[in-house]
């Protein structure tokens, strides 16, 4: 399967790195990337063909992954308008709706919306997928194959739910990194040096996530098992509750979802 990426930034590099690690041949992967520095990094790191603008070779792919920023998409896809045929086009852009992308592409409808996340780089991504009704089983399989190479996938039945996936797992790694930063800073405030505090925070998040993934029990049950009555964890969790932690998370995720919808509405007017 030949895959071309439009845009070779953070997320495309995570996907390409993941695909290469999973055994996809670099010769089957291409990138169209404006920046010369970006192109030479992708060529150097992964051995993929990287070009500045679309040419026939870049167009001759089975799957075209649109990986530029939402605000760059309309201009970036213009050179392809009316030149696509059987390619499955997978947009990973936050917010952008398939109807708008289809219009910018001159009416191409073999479109899939995907929302991956950066752990794709280590094969631990999670991607939400939604396909236009005109995409058959083969097209859905092709899109899922790309994303399954870098982690797991879930299909959602409504396109609007991709904004929810974006808010939970697309942006989610940043929330977890932020929590790690805060836990490390809290450790440093107790007198640990930076390296020790980071190790304590990182290994805790890694171990807890692994335990939760491996367990049949709900995270709430695992949490209760750490929480001795009248003990230290109970004191910390009471402090979280007093500060409204669940509501803080709910509001943050709602803000991300609303921003996705807003981006789609604003940029779709063009
Ligand atoms: N980062 C993440 O965790 C995730 C991002 N996404 C989505 O992925 C997309 C890319 O995000 P991200 O990788 O972070 O962004 P980046 O800005 O890192 O990557 C976009 C790349 O595309 C290049 N580019 C811009 N215009 C063109 C063009 N016309 N032709 C070719 N290349 C072009 C940019 O160059 P230049 O910098 O010079 O403009 C840049 O290198 C976004 O739509 C985002 O919503 C989805 C899931 C997770
Ligand atoms: O912040 C963003 O808009 C993108 C989409 C999900 C993660 N990064």
Relevant terms:
ProC C-terminal domain-like fold, 270 residues, 12 helices, binds NADPH dihydro-nicotinamide-adenine-dinucleotide phosphate, single chain, 13% strand, Rossmann fold, alpha/beta, EC 1.5.1.2, binds (2S)-3,4-dihydro-2H-pyrrole-2-carboxylic acid, pyrroline-5-carboxylate reductase activity, Pyrroline-5-carboxylate reductase, 2 domains, 8 strands, cytoplasm
For the report, how would you describe the main beta sheet?
8 strands, mixed
Q: What does the radius of gyration come to? A: 21 Å
Number of helices: 12
> Could you give the count of β-strands?
8
Number of domains: 2
| CATH class (first level) name of the largest domain | Alpha Beta
> Main sheet: which strands, in order across?
3-2-1-4-5-6-7-8
Average pLDDT works out at: 96
Gross CATH architecture of the largest domain: 3-Layer(aba) Sandwich
Overall geometry comes to elongated
Overview of this structure, please?
The protein is an alpha/beta fold and 270 residues long. The protein has two domains: 3-162, 3-Layer(aba) Sandwich (Rossmann fold), CATH 3.40.50.720; 172-259, Orthogonal Bundle (ProC C-terminal domain-like fold), CATH 1.10.3730. The chain has helices at 10-21, 36-46, 56-59, 73-77, 98-104, 137-148, 161-170, 172-189, 194-214, 219-226, 232-242, 245-268; strands at residues 3-6, 29-32, 49-51, 63-66, 88-91, 111-115, 125-131, 151-155. The chain starts with a strand and ends with a helix. The site of NADPH dihydro-nicotinamide-adenine-dinucleotide phosphate has 27 residues, from helix 1 and helix 4. It is an enzyme of class 1 (oxidoreductase).
């Amino acid at each position: 399967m030949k895959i071309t990426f439009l845009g070779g930034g953070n997320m495309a590099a995570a996907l390409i790195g993941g695909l290469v690690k999973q055994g996809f041949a670099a010769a089957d992967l291409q990138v169209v990337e404006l920046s010369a520095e970006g192109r030479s990094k992708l060529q150097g790191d992964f051995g993929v063909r990287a070009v500045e603008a679309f040419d026939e070779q870049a167009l001759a792919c089975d799957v075209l992954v649109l990986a530029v920023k939402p605000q760059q998409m309309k201009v970036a896809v213009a050179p392809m308008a009316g030149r696509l045929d059987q390619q499955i086009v997978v947009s990973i852009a936050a917010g952008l709706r398939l109807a708008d992308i289809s219009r910018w592409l001159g009416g191409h409808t073999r479109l899939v919306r995907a929302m991956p996340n950066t752990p794709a780089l280590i094969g631990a991504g999670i991607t939400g997928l939604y396909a236009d009704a005109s995409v058959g089983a083969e097209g859905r399989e092709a899109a899922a194959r790309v994303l399954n190479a870098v982690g797991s996938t879930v299909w959602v039945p409504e396109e609007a739910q991709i904004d929810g996936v974006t808010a939970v797992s697309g942006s989610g790694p940043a929330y977890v990194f932020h929590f790690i930063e805060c836990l490390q800073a809290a450790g440093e405030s107790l007198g640990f040096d930076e390296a020790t505090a980071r190790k304590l925070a990182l290994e805790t998040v890694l171990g807890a996530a692994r335990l939760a993934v491996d367990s049949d029990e709900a995270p709430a049950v695992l949490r209760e098992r750490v929480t001795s009555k009248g003990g230290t964890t109970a004191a910390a969790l009471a402090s979280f509750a007093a500060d409204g932690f669940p509501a803080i998370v709910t509001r943050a995720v709602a803000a991300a979802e609303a921003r996705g919808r807003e981006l789609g509405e604003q940029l779709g007017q063009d």
